[in-house]
Structure formats: structure tokens, C-alpha cells
Protein: ABC1 family protein
Amino acid sequence: MGWGNTITRRLKVFSMALLIYFDYKAVQKRVQWVSTTKKSATWTKTHERNARRVLNLMIELEGLWVKMGQYLSTRADVLPEPYINVLKQLQDSLPPRPLEEVRGTIEKELGKPMSDVFADFVLDPLATASIAQVHRATLADGREVVVKIQHDGIKEIILEDLKNAKSLIEWIAWAEPQYNFNPMIDEWCKEAPKELDFNHEAENTRTVSRNLSCKTDCGSGSISSAVDVLIPEVIQSTDKVLILEYMDGIRLNDNDSLEAYGVDKQKLVEEITRAYAHQIYIDGFFNGDPHPGNFLVSKEPPHKPILLDFGLTKRISKSMTQALAKMFLSCAEGDHVALLSAFAEMGLKLRVDMPQQAMDIATVFFRQSTTASEAKENLKALSDQRERNVKALQEKMKLNKKEVQKFNPVDAFPGDAIIFMRVLNLLRGLSASLNVKIVYLDIMRPFAESTLLGSLTHGQIPNSQWIYDSPANSDVESKLRNYLHELGSDKILGIQVCAYKDGKVIIDTAAGMLGKYDPRPVQPDSLFPVFSVTKGITAGMVHWLVNEGKLKYEETVANIWPNFGTNTKELIKVHHLLNHTSGLHNALGDVVKSDPMLVCDWEETLNQIAKCTPETEPGSAQIYHYLSFGWLCGGVIEHASGKKFQEVLEEAIVRPLHIEGELYIGIPPGVESRLAALTVDTEELQKLSGIRAGPGVPPELLSNVAQMASGVPVLFNTLNVRRAIIPAANGHCSARALARYYAALATGGSIPPPHSADSKPPLGSHVHTPKFPTAPLKKKKGTGKKKCSTGNLQDASNSDKNGYSQLRTSDTDDEAAATAAAGSGSRIFSSDKILDAFMGVGEYESMVHPNGKFGLGFRRYSNASGTLRFFGHSGMGGSTGFCDVENNFAMAVMVNKMSLGSVTRGVVRLVLEELGLPVPDEFSTSGEKGPDMVLNLAPPEQQS
Structure:
């Protein structure tokens, strides 16, 4: 271009930007003193004046600026009408390049005279765009074609324009921090130069054509056959010349012709949207530039869309495709857990934990499109929503107005997602320019679902990848993996199995998928919700406090927790809580039934349960405390220790066993991407009608067990519940963390040697409480604010409701403590009688109900001879953890497809029988079955 031209272009761009900026600033101040009518007229004139300035400069400079103008001209849903009316002129042909230039490029690229290639070449171009112009022609063999010829010297101009655009965006972000478009321009700088290689465009065109023409042979056919578009055939290509099949069509901005031919514009845009949904979610390969100039409409009924110009085409990985589909469906369902998980999977990193605001912003991209006439109202709605989000951010981060303008809640924005959002915005602009409304959630949903459900691929996970790729630790593990393959995806969605024998890992297997709509493979560090398995963890915390001298089993609860001593609860002792004999088996049941989200309020549930009245005399009857157990024990834990529940969990169990990041009761922000999602085995659910209540199960619980079993997954998949402290039902852990816990309990508290080195990532390698990236915001002196463990600037006293923000003082100290604890001879219990306490035998036998199923907090199992040598706890749906004291064996099974436990029982029996170990009665073929007391009394014929 030469330095002279480069400097001239740069000066023109920045001079115009400054002129427009100061014009708007001046009007902004002036309209404060005029009437509403005059204000509207003033703004209209200002928009028209500056739109003409922009148009004239873009036509003069050509290159990238024309392309940018074309993009802006499609945003009738958000831009003022004067800009749309003026800039849409750029969708028509620009001044054509001289024929001599066109001829020279063609003959140089094709290596022969034009007359040898074309029987006829129409001199007047069909269109002249920012990068090339298009002529109609007839090949020597008689085929009708269009020839796309790149402008001479355009490559240098585009590259220079990208630099100027980058500088301009950086200046705008500095002047108006709320308008920071740097991530978008960065991605454009990376992708735009690809448009300059027409060989690249030719191959893209062929690929998209193959993908969209694929019918029933690609899979089910139900989705792909719904896409009905036309794409011209590629005849020949070089670096700067592209010859395509000629297709006679109507331009989208030719409204008169569209009306004359009777084109259904609503159906047209819906079909284009389907085509893009297929490209994005099914193919992972899509055109990133769907502006009106890149489409025609066939003149013959049914007036199909003709897709053109695949220069800016983006290929995304399978994992990114799944993450984008997951983001879409999470917005459709309002699922905050899935949304945050999708963000993590696609590489979008946030600096602040604000799930509702994140959902609001993400949903903007999938909202129903608006017509051009509604642009003003749409702009106001978006502005109002932005103001609400900024206010929430300001309150969350304790920032003043100036600070919040400079605070960017996004730490990293993936380029793939930027192009994806640009496509959605262009599609929205397309519908607005044609004055039709499109419900994107309805049109795109089947394609997103098919990606996650695998209906257009060969199975959900390739058979070779169904079992997580890790070395088998033993022969029994190899046999277990064969057994899991035999069960297959009909019975298993996702599963983890881990077992310790004599302190060593003999099984550590993960298989299947994280969820029905999450086809990522289960890994050893995936976190499963385990329901009543949590009770065994909570019970361990109570025993730890007794071992530490902070608590006694015989102590009355009211002595520890003064507010508890009301409504005839004065005689309830700690061991009554652990043994399910306090008489509070239905406590809060009615309250939670009327207000399910009460379970998310830790302090209020403790207050409420302290006011409850027992239904039976303490110690007189053992009736399963299905939900109240956790709050009763949790209240005792906090009052006896003087610490938050989460602090005791870390101190007593997590850090000593070095299982950081893989055992929680209520998850902290930042681990969502490792969560398994629950679903229900519908066939098993039908069997619940045969369950009858017994003496150990509250009749109130079984009266609606079928309804509960179908509703619980929905409730416990929500973010609020998963973050809540519910110590009876809301544990999230990996099988290897839970198995390690029971391996320690089996020996009375001796910490096993480090977990298997073959298990990747290593157990304990995750930070237990993830930190958000520190925002680039300088702290003011004297504000009384400091950085807490979340890494965000916030009031030091503003701890997280679940107690996570202040748990850690030093990661170095924690690491040292964990390393020391994992050393030889370390224990988490010092009492030599702790095993008797777990099972309620020996000197503790008087504290448990005669012949009851529970010891002190743990479900105790008998072997074939009736000896109590097993204890543990299972959870509704099938997950379990237990140990065999006599044989120094511990095992954990995690599942996310909730059932009556047939998969778990089969796994447990196979492993124990292969090892020659006795099978606890809960998992045997003849004993009482059911992975949780709720499902423990189903008729034998329904419990195979």
C-alpha cells in the first residue's frame, strides 16, 4: 500500500471516530434541557448525520470497512433506524472495478486467456463487494456459472484495516469501558484473512454442501432431513478466482421481488436458521458471515434459501460443539449448573460468581428476534437489563460507579464462542431486516439436543471410550469392566467404582456419561450427587468431634445447642440422633414439602428444626430420619466445634485424607464442570408402586415416594440445591474419595497410603475451594476491603452463605498438612474403640435400638453368619459406600441414573464374590435390598 496510503487511511478512520464521538457527547448534554418531542427529533437527526459520515468513509476506504458496514446494517434489532436505512446501501453493489483489472486477475490466476475459458463473459458485474466482485459467465462447455474475482491489492488493505479497527476498538474501550469489543475484534483479526484465499472458500463450500445434503444415511434423519437449502457447486478455484454454478435467485433486500414471487419470509428465515443450527450443532462447521448479501432465494417454488460465500467459515471441536449445545439448552431450561458447566467447557472464565446474571446475559443471544419496528423497545429492554446486571455486580463486588464501569467480569472469552455469537446476532439482524420474528429456542433446540443425545451419531460414546482409559489395578477390575460393558447404556448412564483392599487400590473405574444431556465421559474426578450416602460422611464428622473431646455421645443435645431444648426435646442425646431414635424422623417434612427451597437456607433450617416436636419418645423406636438427620447432626457439629460445618468437614476428613476437590456437602462455585447430572431409570420407577412401609420407614415418606423419586433429580440438579448444606442428602463426591474415606474408617481411622498413581488426575490435586481469577482492579487505600479466598475484591466480612469464602488461610499450610497426614502411621481417630462406636456394639450397644439396622450414624450389615462386621451408607438412586472391617475392605459405587439399586447390587456382588469375601445382606440375593432405607422394603420379586 505504501506508507503514505497507510497513514492517510489511519488518519481518516480516527478523525471520523473522534468527530462522531464528540458529536454524540455534545448532543447528550444538549438534549437534557429540551422537551421529549424535540429530544427525539434531535437524536434522529444526529443518527442520520453520523450514519452518512460512516457510509461515505466506508465507501471511500472499501476493504474491511464495507464488510463492517454490512454487518451493522443487519442489526435492525438494536441499531437506530437511520443507521439501518443509510448503511443498507452497502448491501448493494459498490462501484465496480475496471474490466482491465478483472481480466488481468483472471488470466494470471487461470494461466490462459479469458476467451479460452469462457464462451461468454458478462461485463457488468452481478455484485461488487468488499473483497471481490462477481460476474455471470458461460463456460466453454456451455455451463452457466458465476465468477468471483478478488480485488487487486485488497489483501494488504484488509490487513491494514484490521490493525486500524483493532486500535479503534481499544480506544473505544478506554473511553467507554462498558463498550469493550476487544475479544470480538481479536477473533475477527484471526479469521478475516482466511477469506482472502478462494481455494479455502471452495473447500469450505464443498464441505458445507456435503454436510447439509446429508439425509437419512447420516443417522436418524429426523433432524438433518429438515434442512432444505441450496448451495452452488464449485467448478474451479485458485487463490483469487472462484468459479461456481450459477443459481438464479432473488436478493433478500429486494422486497418487491420477494412479494411478487410470493416468498414466505417467515418460512425462509426459519429454514436459514435450521441450516445454521445444523452447521453449528451437528457439523461443527459453519459459515460465520450470514449477512443478507450472502443469501438468495430460488425463484421456483418452494423458494428455497441459496447459501453463498463460505470464506469466513469456522470449524469447532466436538467438545466445543457439545459445550455450545449445552449452553443453549441450559438457557432454554434455566439450568444454572449446566450453564456454568458449559462456560467452563468452552473456556469462558468468569471473575465473579453471579449465576443469575450470567444466565440473563447468555439468554440474550437466544431470545426471540424482533422486527425493525420494535428496535427502539428492544434497545430499551436490553439497556434496562444491562443496568440491572451492572447494579447487581456493583453490589456483589462492593464497587463504586466508576469502578464498576472498569470492571470486566469475564477473564477469558474463547474465540469460537465469539464467532458463534456473531452468527446468532447476524441471524437476528436478518430476521429483523425481513420484518419477521423467529423463536430460536424452538427452531434450534432439536439440533442442540441431538448433539448431546447422540441421535445423529453412532452411539453416545464410542464403545472403546465408554470405559475411562486407565490401567486396570487387578484381575477383578478387568472382570468388572467386562460386566459394565455387558450391562451397557440401557442400565448405566454414568458410573464410578473404587475399592481398597488392605489399604491398596484394587479397583478405580469410571464409565459412561456425565448426564443425559452431557455426553462427556465420566472421569475419576467427576463429582456425583449421592443423597443419603452423605449421612455416613456427616456421621463421621460427629464421631471426629467426640474423638477430639469436643462432644460426648451421652450428652444431651440441648446442652450443646441451647435453642434445641424446647418442645419436649430436653432428653434427646447425641446418640439418639446418630441412631435414628430421636423421634424427629419427620421433622421439617411438611415445611419442606410446602417450600422445597427452604433446604437451601442453612441457618433457617437449623432454627426451624430446633423448634420441632418429637413424635416418639427418645430411644423408643428406630425410624429412619431421611432428611432431618443432616440438620440435627449439622447443628450439633457447628455448636460443639464453634466452627462452620464446611470447616469441620475439611479439617476432619478432606485434608487428612488428601481428597481435596472430590468430596463436598454443598458444592462451592467453580466445580460445576465436573458435576454428573441425575436422571431416572423410568422402568425402575414403575416398580415403586409395590413398595410398602415397614416399621423402620416413616409412612409419610413412602406415601409419595414415586412422585419424590421423579421430582428429586430435577430439584437436586439445580444450582441452589447443589450449593446448599444438606448433610443428609447433598453430598457430591467421587468414588475414589468415598472409598478412601471408608478405607480409613475400616481400620479405625488409619489413613491409607497415597491413592493409585495410575488414577488421573491424581486424587487430591484439585483446589478444594476454587478461586476466580483476580480482576485487574486496583484497591483503594482506606476502603476496608481486602481480597478474600475467592480472589475477588469484596468486603472481608461478606462470606459466602455456605461458608466457603473464609475457609482457607494458606494453601501452603494445607498442602503441608495434607502431606503430613498422608504419611505413615497417621490417623483421623485416636480411640481404639471407634469401630465399636460406628456400629453400636460393645460398650456402645446400649446406645442403639435392639436389632436395629443402624449403629451410631452408619447402616450396619451382617454377613451370612449374622456377624456385624460391615458398615456404611447408601443413597436413594443407587450410590453407596461401605467397608468390611474384618477383611480390611472398602468400596464405593457412584451412579447418576437413579434406580432401585440393581446395578449397584450386581457390581458389589461381582467384586466381593470374585475376591472370596462375604456379601453384606443389603447387596445379597436373599437379604433385604435397596440402596437406601426409603427403598429397602420393596417385595423381593421386584428387587432382582
In short: The mean pLDDT is 83.
